Amino acid sequence: MTARRKERIDELDVLRGMAILSVILQHALGVFIRRPEIQFADAAMIGMLFNITKFAVPAFVFVTGAALVYNYYDNLDYPKFLWKRVKDILLPYLIWSIAYEIYSNGLPATNYLWLRGLAKDLLYGNAFYHLWFVVMIFQFYLVYPVFRSLFRKAPAILDSKLRFAAAVGLLAAIYTFIMWFSSSYIPSADLHAGSKAVQVIFIELRDRNFIYFFFYFMLGGIAGLILPRWREFVARSCIWNTYVLAALFIWIGFELMQGVSGGLVNLNYSTSLKPSMFFYTVSEIIFLYGVSMVIANSGSVIFKFFNLAGKYSYGIYLVHAFLLIYAVGMVDRFSLTSHHLLAGVYSFILCALGTIAVVMLISKIPGGKFLIGPIPGK
């Protein structure tokens, strides 16, 4: 049986659009905060902006969970489902990974060693700095039947507010422990597993292991399963959650400043894989979901822009790293050496607009979907 096609949830496209633009902003700011001549004031402001945009990857996981449960809860033809994701996700990923490999290392010698290195980079998402995300998100498609079976048992829990609160609280507690394990225990204990495979998958490459992002997928799945009630919850939470978000933002900002050494701000203190950032990110996703609902209901130019960016977000994600290189080069010509924050913002604007234009052009050519993934309306 095939999955029943349902209408698109507009606010998910808006949230996805916010997330992809935040990814580009993160990467643009990251270029300039690492320059040794940066002033502390610029670095501190970039760090604060970086914290604001850290919701992006968890938001993508949240949207994936919501969309999958919303569309594939009743019926799932798993082989057809998985084959579609191979064509829509892995094929463009393969093409762009090869392109980034050639850009970084030049034309390859067609020999066994190069093919083995490419295969390893594809498996780990190491062909370029941003491609790890594809490896991580695809794991959710692979194991979706397991999550689906859990969600199909959820109605009995969802019917009781007490059981529902207890279940979400338990998931949050488990995930908080995983975040503590990742950010505190592993580094302090210099943990080494007995197995090389376990060491690589669960310790060295934990930033692309789906287990370390499962809560956002489950939260998105809950939203997709009880969409009207989820929207009501988001609307009711707008006031109190704003205060919670502000308090958590101060907390993670304080942690970021604790990592300052020699006037340099270390963005590694803004990792998503720690308890404080987990709490902050959940609050921010709920807040931005509410904003997305308002934008989606407005039908304004802002909605059309975020909606467009959201629908083409995968292609934008794959392409933007190339465009950022040239955007930064253009901005550097203006010699904004004492204005790194401004240079980062300018680079972001050029990269975002340029990438959207390129992806739109690719969508018009025959076979464009093999480069940027699914094309809306086709």
Automatic annotation (TrEMBL):
Q: List the transmembrane segments.
A: 12-33, 45-73, 93-115, 127-144, 164-182, 210-227, 239-257, 277-302, 314-331, 343-362
GO cellular component terms attached to this protein's record: plasma membrane
Q: Which domain of life is it from?
A: Bacteria
Domain annotation Acyltransferase: ranges: 10-363
InterPro entries recorded:
Acyl_transf_3_dom
Among the GO molecular function terms of this UniProt record, one is: O-acetyltransferase activity
Localization in the cell: Cell membrane
Q: Which UniProt keywords apply?
A: Acyltransferase, Cell membrane, Membrane, Transferase, Transmembrane, Transmembrane helix
Question: What kind of membrane protein is this, topologically?
Answer: Multi-pass membrane protein
One GO BP annotation is: enterobacterial common antigen biosynthetic process
| Pfam families from the UniProt entry | Acyl_transf_3
**Which family, according to the similarity comment?**
Belongs to the acyltransferase 3 family.
Protein known as: Acyltransferase family protein
Organism, per UniProt?
A: Pelotomaculum schinkii
